[in-house]
Amino acid sequence: MRVGLLNATGYTGAEVIRFASGHPEFVLVGVTARSQAGQTLGAVLPWVRASPRPAYADLVLTPELNGSFDLIVSCLPHEVSAEKLAPFIASGVPAVDVSPDFRLQDLAEHRRWYGEHHAPQHRGAAEYGLTETHRAALRHTKLVANPGCHAITAELALVPALAAGLVAPNVIVDSKTGVSGAGRSAALEFGFSEVNENARPYKVAAHRHGPEIAQELTRAAGRRVEVTFVPTLVPMSRGILTTAYATLRDGVTPAAVAHAYHETYDGEQFVHVVDEPPQTKWTTGTNHCFVSCVVDEANRVLVAMAATDNLGKGAAGGALQNANVMLGLDESAGLGVPPSYP
Amino acid sequence: MRVGLLNATGYTGAEVIRFASGHPEFVLVGVTARSQAGQTLGAVLPWVRASPRPAYADLVLTPELNGSFDLIVSCLPHEVSAEKLAPFIASGVPAVDVSPDFRLQDLAEHRRWYGEHHAPQHRGAAEYGLTETHRAALRHTKLVANPGCHAITAELALVPALAAGLVAPNVIVDSKTGVSGAGRSAALEFGFSEVNENARPYKVAAHRHGPEIAQELTRAAGRRVEVTFVPTLVPMSRGILTTAYATLRDGVTPAAVAHAYHETYDGEQFVHVVDEPPQTKWTTGTNHCFVSCVVDEANRVLVAMAATDNLGKGAAGGALQNANVMLGLDESAGLGVPPSYP
Amino acid sequence: MRVGLLNATGYTGAEVIRFASGHPEFVLVGVTARSQAGQTLGAVLPWVRASPRPAYADLVLTPELNGSFDLIVSCLPHEVSAEKLAPFIASGVPAVDVSPDFRLQDLAEHRRWYGEHHAPQHRGAAEYGLTETHRAALRHTKLVANPGCHAITAELALVPALAAGLVAPNVIVDSKTGVSGAGRSAALEFGFSEVNENARPYKVAAHRHGPEIAQELTRAAGRRVEVTFVPTLVPMSRGILTTAYATLRDGVTPAAVAHAYHETYDGEQFVHVVDEPPQTKWTTGTNHCFVSCVVDEANRVLVAMAATDNLGKGAAGGALQNANVMLGLDESAGLGVPPSYP
Amino acid sequence: MRVGLLNATGYTGAEVIRFASGHPEFVLVGVTARSQAGQTLGAVLPWVRASPRPAYADLVLTPELNGSFDLIVSCLPHEVSAEKLAPFIASGVPAVDVSPDFRLQDLAEHRRWYGEHHAPQHRGAAEYGLTETHRAALRHTKLVANPGCHAITAELALVPALAAGLVAPNVIVDSKTGVSGAGRSAALEFGFSEVNENARPYKVAAHRHGPEIAQELTRAAGRRVEVTFVPTLVPMSRGILTTAYATLRDGVTPAAVAHAYHETYDGEQFVHVVDEPPQTKWTTGTNHCFVSCVVDEANRVLVAMAATDNLGKGAAGGALQNANVMLGLDESAGLGVPPSYP
Q1: What DSSP state is assigned to residue B135?
Q2: How far is C237 from chain B (nearest CA, A)?
Q3: Which of A336, C37, C221, D119 would be C52's cystine partner, CB 3.0–4.6 Å?
Q4: CA distances from B245 to A174, B31, B225, C6 (A)
Q5: Average of pLDDT values for D39-46?
Q6: Mean of the pLDDT values across residues B260-265?
Q7: Is the CB of D226 less than 8 angstroms away from the CB of C198?
Q8: What is the pLDDT of residue B152?
Q9: pLDDT-based confidence at residue C2 (cuts at 50, 70, 90)
Q10: pTM of this structure
Q11: Rounded average pLDDT over A321-335
C-alpha cells in the first residue's frame, strides 16, 4: 500500500517512519517537509540508514505530495493539516490526521482553542481515534482524528471508571510528560540546559488537551464530566505518565474498580492492567500502555495511572493502529517493536 | 559554635556540610559515618576540597561523636536517629533531627509508619521544623523535628489556603521528586539506567509523608484534613515539584486566593509567591521555595504549586534555617548560596 | 530453533530477549537467573508484555537450563560463563558467550586480567565474534566469543586504517560510554545522582578491554599494536562513542583514508561510513554502527570515530548477528529493530 | 565597586550574576540585554530572587551601559564584544572580556577563526586570563582576555608537562563538554531530545579553541606545540572533562610527572591535583579544577585529565578570579560557592 506522509521530519513524522519501516504492507512513497524540501530523508535523519528499510534514507523530501496513495498520514500542525488533507479527503483517500484539527466535535470549542477551522466541510466525516474505545466506528471511516498524547493517556486511565459509573464526574488529570511532545524545533525553553534537572508545570488548567479529555470522558460517562488538567514537563525525551484522581461513589470497592479495568482491557493487546504503578520506561518506543489503579479508602479517592510513550501510543503508534483498523489490516501490523529498556 | 554531624556522608549529611561550609558561626568539629569510619571526609567526598572550607576534607569520620558541641544535626535514618540523639537531648545540647523520629505527634501513627520509638521520653520536647509556620515555637525549643522533603513542599503549597478556609478539607498532593531523596546508597531501582527516561509513581497513597502532611494541614485548617498523597520519581537528582488540588469553597475568588498566599509569604525571605508556574531549577542548591496558584473556575479546583530543592529547603537548608532560629542567629546565616542555574 | 539464555535478567540478557522477541526462527525456551529463580520473566521485566512475544513474560526463570537446545547464549559474568557453557560445548550445542571468557587468545593475558580460566579445554574452539572482521571463521565454529562493547566500537573505528597500513602502530582509544555497560546491579557509583551531570574516566589505561583491542588491532595490522585505552562514563543509559587517534604515515592522504574505510564497510549492512561525526543516538536500540574519519593535517593525526549502542551491536545485537552466521541463517534475522530516535 | 555586565542574560552572564551576588566588593549597577531590554532581570531569570542579592531581580535590562563603572565584564559574542568594550578600554575602565576577541596574539590567526577584529588598537593591552599561568601580568593590566572553556581545562591539564619538558610537542586533547557552553539560545541541535542519550563529536580538529590551546601550550613549552583538539557534546548542562594525551620523552618516570604537577598546583587554591580520575561533578557551580595524571608505560603515553565547570572556572568564575587579581582584591572574593553535589 502506497503511503504518503505529510511533515515527515518532525518527531511525530519521524516516529511514523520508524514504525512504518517495519510494516508488512505499507510502503512510504512520499514524504514532505517545508524548510528541508529537496534534501533526502537520510540527510535530515541519518538514523534512517539503521532502520529496517535503509532505502527510505534516499527518499527526497518534497513540499507537497504527488501521485496516488492508499493512505495519507498527516503530522502537520493544526490549521495547515486540515487544509492540506482536504483534497485527499475529498477524493476518498483514507487519512489519519495526527493534528488536532478533527478532534473536537463542538466547533465553538475548536475555535476557542485552535482558531478557525480550515476544512469544516469534512468535520462530520472524522472518527476519534482512540482505537480501544472507538474501534467499531474506525472500521467504517476514511478519516481518523488521532488524539492528543495527553488525552490518549488520560482517557485510557479514566474511561473504565467513568463508563462504569464508579466515580463522580469531576476529575483531576496530572500528566507528567517528556519533551518530545513539544516537537522538533528550535526553542529556548526546550533546550537541554533548561529542561535537564527541572520539573515545571505549564498551561495549568489551560491546555488544549483539556477539552478533548472532557469530551471523551463525557462520552464514556454519558454525562457532563469536568476535568482539571495540569501537564508538567519533566526531563525525559519520551513518555507520559498520567495520574488521575476522582472521588469514588459510595459503596464502590477496590474489587469493583479492578473488575471494571480488567473487563475493559483484558482483551486488548496494547493496554495492560497491572498491579504495581506503571512506568513510562516499559513503553519506550512502542504502541503499548500500562494502567494501574489504587483506591485511597480514607479519602475515598480513586488514583488511576497510565503510562505510554507520547510518540508511540500517544501519536505515531496509535496512528498506525488506527490506520490498520480503518484499512482492514491486522491491527498490530508494524507495531511489533520491542520497548527500549533500559 | 561547635557543630557535630551524625551520618555525614549521605546526601543530606553532605548537603549540611555544603551549607555549613559557608556559615559564619558554625564550625564542623565532629562527623560520623558507619562503614566509612576511619576515612577522611575528603576521601569519601572529594568535592569538599572545592568548598569554602577545604580543611573540612581532613576531618576524620568517626563512628560516634566525641567532645562538646553547641549543636548536633542528625542525618541518621529513623530509629537510629532518636537513639543516638537521646543522650545529647538529655544533656541539653540543641539538636536538629532530619530523620522522621520526632515529626508525628500521634504515637500510634508513628508506630504504624515507623515502628517502635527509640526515645519516647523526648517526644514532647520536639517542635516541628517548618520555620515559616512554627517560627515562634522554634525560638524556644532545643529539639527540632525537621520535616520530610515532600511534606515541606506540600505544606508550603497548601497551608495558606487551608488556614484561610478557602478550600474543602480533602486534598490531593501530587509530588514529583528527584532521586537524591532516596539517599546515597546502592540500590538497583535508583540506578541511572532505571531512572533515566522514566517516570514512575511509588508508594501510591501509602507514603510515610502522607500522615505528616495531614497532621500539619489539619493544624493549619483547625479541622481534620484528609490527604491523598502520591509521589512520582522523575529523572532528576534534585528538586521537588508539588502540585496540590483542593475544591474551592463557594464564593472564593482568585483574588482571595492570591491575597491569602501573599499575606502568608510576602514577609518571608525563602518563600516567593509568583505568577507563573514554579520550576524546581530556580531553587537548585538553595533553601528557597517558589509558590504559585491557579484557580480552575469551571471545576472549582484550586491548583497550588510549590517548587523546592529536596536537599535544600527540603532537608539540609531547612535544618540550618531551623538551627539558626533555635540558636538566636540570623535566620539566613549560611544559606546565601545562589541557585545553580542552568 | 530452541534457544536457551543464561542470565536473562541483566541488561545484556534483557537485550537478547528484546531482539529475540522479533527473531523469525528463535524460540526462547529456557531462561536462567540466580536470585530471581522461580519468578516469571514478566515479574522481573514487566516490559516483556509490550514486546512482540508477550508470552515470554510467562517463562519461569530457573537456576539452570534443562532440556535440549539449538543455541545457547550466555550473558553470565566471566568464570561462571565458561563453567556453565562447558557441558553444552562438550555436547556440541552451538553457543555464543557474551562474557570475556573466550576472547583473549593468550592464556597468560587472560589470567592477568580475568584470573584462572574455567574451561581451558574449549579455548581453541572459540572464534572471536566481530562479524565484520571474522565472518568466514564464524561460519565454521560452534563457539563464539562475543567481543566487549568498547572493543567492538574501537575495532570498527581502527581496523581499516591499520589493515591498510595507513597509521603507526601506537594508537589512543578514548571511549565515552553509557552506564548500562556496567550491568544491572545495585551499585552506588552507578546511581542516578552520581552519574547524572557528571563525566568521569575510570580504569584509565587499565581496563580489560585494552588487551582485547590490542589483540584484534594487532591481528588487523599484522604487527604488534600498542593501545592506550581510556573509557569515560557519561550520563547516558545506552551508547558508546569511540574517538581513536593514530599518527598517519608519511604521504597518506584523506582520500586514501576514505577509500580504506569505504572499501571495508560499504558491503556491510550494519556499519555505515558517514561524512559527519557519528552520534550514538542514531544507533539506540539497534545492531548498527556509524563510522567517520577526520584527518588533522597539521598534526598528522587520524581521528577515527565510531558510534554504537553498547547493548546492541556492542553486546546482544552482535551476539545474535554472530549466532545467525554460525547457524547459517540470514545474518540480519531478528535485528530489524528501528533505532529509538529521539 | 560598581560593576557593569554586558549581555547579562546568556548562561555566562547569568553565571557572572550568580558569583557576583556573593562578592563582598562588587555591586552590579548595570546589566544589558538585546531582545529583553526593558524587562527586569527577575522577569528573565526568576531564580535571581533566590540568590544572596534578591534585589538584583529588580535591575532593568538596558541596551547599553550608562554611568560610571569600576569594572566591566563582557559576555557578548565575539566582534560585538570588542566593539562595545572599546570605549571603556579607551577611558581606562578595567575590563574582563569573556569573548574570544582578545585571546589570540596572532592577528592572522584571529582573522582566520573569528573574522575581522573590531578593536585592533587595544589588542596589545590585553593579558590572557588563565590566572594560574599569567597571574603576574594580570596584576598590571586593565584588560583581561578570558580564555575559552575548553582551553582553560586543556591548559590546566597539559601546561605542567609541557613546561617541564616531559612530553613531545604533539598533543591530543579530547574534551567532553556539557551543553551550556553553547549558550542560552534557541537551537534545535541543543534541544533536550537531541542531546539527551547522545554523545557526539563536533568541529573535529576544527574548533576555535584549538589555536588558543596551541598558543598557550607553545608559550608553556617554549617551542611550537601542535594540538589535535576534538570536543564531544555529552548530555550534561555543566562540566568539561578534558583527557589529554602526549608521548612521554625517554626516561620520564611517573614520579617526575607527579612532581611537575604538584609543584605547579600545590600552592593554588582553585586547582587540585588528585590521584583518582577527576569528575566534573566535584566542580559543579564552582571556580575549581581537579587534575590527575596516569602514565601508560607500555605505550609511553601521558594521560592528563582535568575537570571543571565550563561556566565556573571555564567562564564566569575565572572571569571574577581575574577581575580580583587585576583590581588587587582577594583572589577568591565571591568565589566561595560550594559545589552542587549530587
Answers
A1: H
A2: 5
A3: A336
A4: 10, 41, 13, 49
A5: 98
A6: 98
A7: no
A8: 98
A9: very high
A10: 0.98
A11: 98
Confidence of residue B328 (pLDDT cuts 50, 70, 90): very high
Helix, strand, coil in percent for chain A, rounding step 5 = 40, 25, 40
Q: How confident is the model at residue A179 (pLDDT cuts 50, 70, 90)?
A: very high
Tell me what pLDDT residue C257 has.
Answer: 98
Are B190 and C195 in contact (CB < 8 Å)? no
- CA distance linking residue D132 with residue D269, whole number of Å: 10
CA distance A277 to A291: 8
pLDDT of residue B257: 98
Nearest by CB: B192 against C185, C186, C196: C196
- Using a CB-CB distance cutoff of 8 angstroms, which residues of chain C are in contact with residue A283? 47, 50
Q: Minimal Cα–Cα distance from B202 to chain A, Å? A: 7
Residue C205 C-alpha cell reads as 589505561
Angle at the Cα of B282 (from B280 to B286), degrees rounded to 5?
A: 90
Strand partners, D73: D5, D96
Eight-class DSSP state of C65: -
Amino acid occupying residue C117? H
All residues of chain D having their beta carbon less than 8 Å from the beta carbon of residue A47 are none
B292 contacts: CB under 8 Å, gap ≥ 6: B273, B274, B275, B276, B277, B278, B304, B305, B306
Query: By a Cβ cutoff of 8 Å, what residues of chain D touch chain B?
Result: 11, 14, 18-19, 21-22, 45-47, 49-52, 54, 180, 184, 196-197, 237-238, 269, 272, 274, 276, 279, 281-286, 288, 290, 336-342
CB atoms within 10 A of CB B54: 15
Residues forming a β-bridge with D290: D272, D307
CA–CA dist B258, B275 (Å, integer) = 9
Distances (CA, A) of B9 to B36, B63, C160: 8, 12, 49
Alpha helices in chain A (DSSP H): 11-20, 41-44, 80-90, 107-114, 131-138, 149-163, 192-195, 209-221, 254-265, 317-326
Residues of chain C within CATH 3.30.360.10 domain(s) are: 150-310
Confidence grade of residue A4 (pLDDT, cut at 50, 70, 90): very high
> Distance, in angstroms, between D127 CA and closest chain A CA?
31
Topology of domain D150-310, per CATH? Dihydrodipicolinate Reductase; domain 2 (3.30.360)
Cell triple for D338 = 560550594
Shortest CA distance to A27 belongs to which of A9, A2, A50? A2
DSSP for A292-317, please give it. Answer: EEEEETTTTEEEEEEEE-TTIIIIIH
Cα–Cα–Cα angle for C154, C157, C160, rounded to 5 degrees: 125
Enumerate the residues of chain C whose CB falls inside 8 A of the CB of residue D281: 194, 197-198, 200
Q: Where in chain A are all domains bearing CATH 3.40.50.720?
A: 2-147+313-326
Residue B14's pLDDT is 98
CATH number for the domain running over C2-147+313-326? 3.40.50.720
Would residue D289 show up in a list of annotated catalytic residues for this protein? Answer: no
| Helical residues (DSSP H) of chain D, grouped into ranges | 11-20, 41-44, 80-90, 107-114, 131-138, 149-163, 192-195, 209-221, 254-265, 317-326
In chain B, which residues have their Cβ closer than 8 Å to the Cβ of A193?
A: 342
List A75, A149, A289, A293, catalytic entry:
A149
> How many CB atoms are located within 10 Å of the residue B70 CB?
16
ipTM beyond cut 0.95: yes
DSSP string, B6-63: ESTTSHHHHHHHHHHTT-SS-EEEEEB-STTTTSBHHHH-GGGGGSS-GGGGGPBPBS
Q: What is the pLDDT of residues D291-313, one digit of tens each?
A: 999 999 999 999 999 999 999 99
